Amino acid sequence: MGSVAENRAFFNEQAEGWSERCWQAREAREPGVVRAGLQRLVAALDIAASGTLLDVGCGDGVLVPHLLGRLGPGGRLIELDVAEKMIACNRRRHHDPRLQFVVADVADCALATESIDGIVCFSCFPHFADPRGVVRALAGLLRPGGWLAVSHLSSSAELNAYHTQAHPAVGGAVLPTAPELAGVFAAAGLSIACADDEPAFYLVLGRRARPPAIRGSVHPSA
């Protein structure tokens, strides 16, 4: 696995035509796998129409139409990626007033604490140099009741085998098994709603607790 700078350089080089080479090509090889996987992912997410979502490692925006389709006019979707050329491609592909684009490393994205209702890390988690630190940081961005999802359209075993043959910038990147990542989520204070790790689909979904309701005092009748 490369450094942040190496990852940025690699994904900048890959930005043009990324979705075509990655997702469209896979859908052509394995009809229905990408479409069904994305639908399954988005269906599992508790997206409020007026919520604020963060799409970490967004690339050129493969999730944008799926997430915007669940948001209402008052919702907001923040697209964040360390590679500025990925964000540039994303901007060209998607035009919507609910979108905000941010070029930043996820570990230093300067978003406000407790400002996000839902965070998706799709097809990016193995590239984080400090995955435990990233989970802690993202959990801190969540409003009470907010959720964090890490997802891939491969099992951890499938993805890790693929990365052994990948470019040196991303080779060796490891996706924990779902139970392992669920443990990381729990250590960051997230309750586990889902931990699926199966062929062509991986999803660990955790939620930040809401504070207990404060009940009014009961005064006996005079």
If you had to describe this structure to a student in words, what would you say it looks like?
The chain has 222 residues and is an alpha/beta fold. It has a single domain, classed as 3-Layer(aba) Sandwich (Rossmann fold), CATH 3.40.50.150. It has a seven-stranded mixed β-sheet with strand order 3-2-1-4-5-7-6, with helices on both faces. α6 links the parallel β4 and β5. The model has no long low-confidence stretch (mean pLDDT 93).
Q: What is the gist of this entry?
A:
The protein has 222 residues and is of the alpha/beta class. Helix content is 36%, strand content 23%.
Which tags fit this structure?
Rossmann fold; alpha/beta
Topology:
Elements: H1 4-14, H2 18-29, H3 33-44, E1 52-56, H4 64-68, E2 76-81, H5 84-93, E3 99-103, E4 116-122, H6 131-141, E5 142-152, H7 156-163, H8 178-187, E6 190-198, E7 201-208
Parallel strand pairs: 1-2, 1-4, 2-3, 4-5
Antiparallel strand pairs: 5-7, 6-7
CATH superfamily: Vaccinia Virus protein VP39
Low-confidence stretches: none
Domain unit count: 1
Question: Rounded to an integer, what's the Rg over CA atoms?
Answer: 18 Å
The rounded distance between the terminal residues' Cα atoms is 71 Å
* Major β-sheet annotation: 7 strands, mixed
Mean pLDDT: 93
Strand order of the largest sheet: 3-2-1-4-5-7-6
From the 3D structure, determine the CATH topology: Rossmann fold
Structural class computed from helices and strand pairing: alpha/beta
If classified by CATH, what would the architecture be? 3-Layer(aba) Sandwich
What string gives the helices and strands in order? Answer: HHHEHEHEEHEHHEE
